[in-house]
Design brief:
Blueprint (H helix, E strand, L loop, with lengths): L2 E14 L2 E14 L3 E5 L6 H8 L7 E6 L2 E2 L5 H11 E4 L11 H11 L6 H10 L15 H14 L4 E5 L7 H17 L3 E6 L2 H4 L4 E6 L2 E2 L1
Helix pairs in contact: 3-5, 4-5, 5-6
Bound molecules: adenosine-5'-diphosphate and magnesium ion (MG).
The site of magnesium ion (MG) has 2 residues, from helix 1.
């Protein structure tokens, strides 16, 4: 398997006036194509910071991030946002669905934003794999938390990014729904050969991954 995403000596310190928080100490990580990796650590250990740096929504103080062997930090802003939109998908704890759009409309929204025409058959197939085809015309308010998160996962997968970054995707779900969502996310991503990097504080959820990275006080162990 070839390397899709690489972090080289990245670090991050947040500065608020005279207060400094070393959120992430220098670390280097590699992620292979099609791999499902979880990042586990307690609250405040730097998980979200690491994920934001990998997805370039935050810029590291030092080091570099390579996607497919190319630095994504030295690109001009416009190029970075385009690359991020097409190559990196995000899944958040709170689902972040648009309430006035149906499940299907939510899923195709980023595709439209990218100026592309959604392939209805492929979207429906993906919804079937994730067990949400029956939710196609439902609005987020009419779906359970687990269903909403599977719609958010479908939305991330549908743009066919190389990498999906998921920050506590099961954080608002009970145990049974968490297991179902992670199992289906794993299955769908494997089908489309996508890499998943999932942050969680829950060891049971983390165990679904091929590999676990542990983080403590901003340090990878
Ligand atoms: N924007 C920010 N400004 C200042 N401190 C921050 C900011 N974001 C995170 N931190 C701090 O950095 C540390 C790591 O936070 P975070 O990466 O969110 O941890 P986790 O996701 O593991 O809970 C914490 O001490 C947090 O308070
Ligand atoms: Mg967090």
């Amino acid at each position: 398997m070839s390397i899709i995403l690489e972090a080289k000596d990245i670090s991050k310190t947040y500065k608020n006036g005279s207060v400094e928080v070393k959120a992430l100490k220098p670390c280097s990580l590699t992620f292979k194509e099609g791999e499902f990796v979880s990042i586990v650590g307690k609250s405040g250990s730097g998980k979200s910071t690491l994920l934001k740096l990998l997805g370039t929504t935050e810029i590291p103080d030092d080091g570099d991030i390579l996607l497919n062997g190319k630095s994504i930090l030295r690109l001009k802003d416009k190029d970075v946002s385009k690359l991020r939109r097409s190559q990196i998908g995000f899944v958040y704890q709170d689902y972040s669905l648009l309430p006035e759009f149906t499940a299907y409309e939510n899923i195709i929204f980023p595709i439209r934003l990218d100026g592309k025409i959604p392939e209805k058959d492929k979207i429906e197939e993906l919804m079937m794999v994730l067990g949400i085809l029956s939710c196609k015309d439902k609005f987020p308010g009419e779906m359970s938390g687990g269903e909403q998160q599977r719609v958010a996962i479908a939305r991330a997968i549908a743009i066919q990014p190389a990498v999906i970054l998921a920050d506590e995707p099961t954080g608002n779900l009970d145990c049974e729904n968490s297991n179902e969502v992670v199992t289906l996310m794993r299955k769908a991503a494997k089908m489309y050969h996508q890499t998943i990097i999932m942050v969680t504080h829950d060891m049971q959820t983390a165990d679904y991954a091929d590999r676990i990275i542990r983080i403590q006080d901003g340090e990878i162990s």
